[in-house]
Amino acid sequence: MKSKTARLFFIDAMRAWAILMMLQGHFVDGLLENSFRDPDSLIFTIWKYFRGITAPVFFTVSGFIFTYLLIRVPEQGFNNPRIKKGIKRGIQLLFIGYLLRLNIFGLFTGELYPSFFLVDVLHIIGLSILGIIGLYLFTYKKRKYVFPAFLVIISCLLFSFEPIYSKWTFQILPDALANYFTRTNGSVFTIIPWFGYTAIGGFFSYLFTQYKNSRSLYPAAISIAAIAGILLIFYSSDLFLAVSSITGMQLFEAIAANNYLFIRLGDVLIAFAVFMFFRHFITSRTVLKIGQNTLSIYVIHFVILYGSFTGLGLYQFFYQSLPPAILIPAAIAFMFLCSYLSLYFARNEDYIKQSINIGLTDLKSKLEPWAIYTQRILKIGIYRILKTIGFVKS
């Protein structure tokens, strides 16, 4: 049983589905001509709804995977090898998130554009990983249920108080920090409430790990996830209205008025149920490899679509200008290209890195004589300047 649960292939399949949904979602949303964005169109409405599922699934699965790896090892606290790896991973995601928003031409003029400080998916996942590590280190010496209890309580609090803190502008903070908490300046995601999805993913992972040796794990998990998902999607708003009328608290009425967080959590649970149900049929190595290489796919899509580093991407040339007849096959080709490039890099990663190292070494050997010559010229120049102003005599 342990060997079967060592790698959760249905999670890899969910990640693959989520990243492909993200690719087509970003592509279509950015390049579809405005005249085709008809809210009365059934096709456009269905596409928009499923596009809204992508981010919650991605955040939840990210929290699930990291927490699963964190708590499945016997070592505790700082002796847990996943702590060091998780901190490194979290910082890496933050670094890549900022790197993708860097514009080389701006650097040439000594300027960082405001878009560099905006927060996106990688920033939030990286910070969420660090947050889960912090909660784990704070609670690992306590009873086992304290860590998952913290995760689920934080998720519920973030989702429940969203109507209140969503109105805050955080003007007291520098924009670089405020962008993690408010979308006022243009951030795509913020740590509140989106950390709630990674935290709830960690809670699901804890439950899964606790009952991993049970023969009824999947039947029970599928049933619970499906039922809970349906209840959240169709009945959570009515529940909040009922609680508001009983208690007189306006907060619950405000939640019901814009109940996207709990409804999307229901969508996530349905997605979990579906992928767990079809887990025996999702055996394509390509699909699983896509799910295991989502970071490189995300980076590649960001460069091609948004023009990272150069500012020259598909957005700059085709922003909201393509009709569906061109857009749909182009979106399919875009998903294929990003996936192919990512898998090609994964297959040839060692060779590519070795080639880069050889190239850098060769470049260094060619530039070294010039560097020595430049160093000598600078040394002579600096000496002459110091001699002229009297700092040295000889």
Structure summary:
With 394 residues, the chain is mainly alpha-helical. It has two domains: 2-348, no CATH class; 349-394.
Plain-language structure description:
The protein has 394 residues and is mostly helical. It has 2 domains: 2-348, no CATH class; 349-394. The chain contains 18 helices and no strands. It has helices at residues 2-5, 9-31, 42-71, 81-100, 104-108, 121-139, 146-160, 162-165, 175-178, 191-210, 217-247, 250-257, 260-277, 285-292, 294-306, 314-318, 324-347, 349-388. The longest helix has 40 residues, at 349-388. The protein is globular and about 85 Å long.
Poorly predicted runs = 1-5
Helix content: over 70%
Give the structural class: mainly alpha
Q: Which H/E pattern describes the elements?
A: HHHHHHHHHHHHHHHHHH
Taking the alpha carbons of the first and last residues, their distance comes to 80 Å
Q: What profile does the largest beta sheet have?
A: none
Topology:
Blueprint: H1 2-5, H2 9-31, H3 42-71, H4 81-100, H5 104-108, H6 121-139, H7 146-160, H8 162-165, H9 175-178, H10 191-210, H11 217-247, H12 250-257, H13 260-277, H14 285-292, H15 294-306, H16 314-318, H17 324-347, H18 349-388
